[in-house]
Amino acid sequence: MRKVVVRALAEAWIEKLSTAAPGDQALLAVAEGWVELSQPEESQKEADARGQLRLAEEAVARVDRLEAAGAFPGRDGEAAYVKQSRAAVSDVESARREWEALAQPMADISVLTDPVRSAKLWEESDNHYRGKLLRLAIDRVFLEKAPYQGARFKADRLDIVWKTPRGWQPPKDGTDES
After folding, report:
1. What 8-state DSSP symbol labels residue 151?
2. In percent, how much of the chain has pLDDT > 90?
């Protein structure tokens, strides 16, 4: 049963990637994951730099919150606020420059979007790497219960939840469902 399900997942994965539009959310998520899979060291450096940038931005916000709460009273407090605020902003600019130097453009995923090449990559990969390839595009898989015991597996029993890019939020259509 497991082999049949994995084969069906692989077919759905190849079909999804080869027929997806260039701006498809799953394709963007695959591109993010492909960079991490194909260039792990560079990806880790970029993630570290992005984390440093986030910390520096939080420091600016923290100084602003302290100032709003009245933590810098009087002239000396104002001078201390300006000094800390400038230092925090300088840290943000430095972290942003470092991140921009390491940030990678979108990955070349043509090997994954071409059905012939992706099928060849799939066939040449071991099970561990195949799992990584599936996890590039698939977030979750639900398998519906068979209609009766001993029923043959059919791919339409699979419900695949495709990944979305990191930080992606669905667009708001302006309708209120409450």
Report:
1. P
2. 26
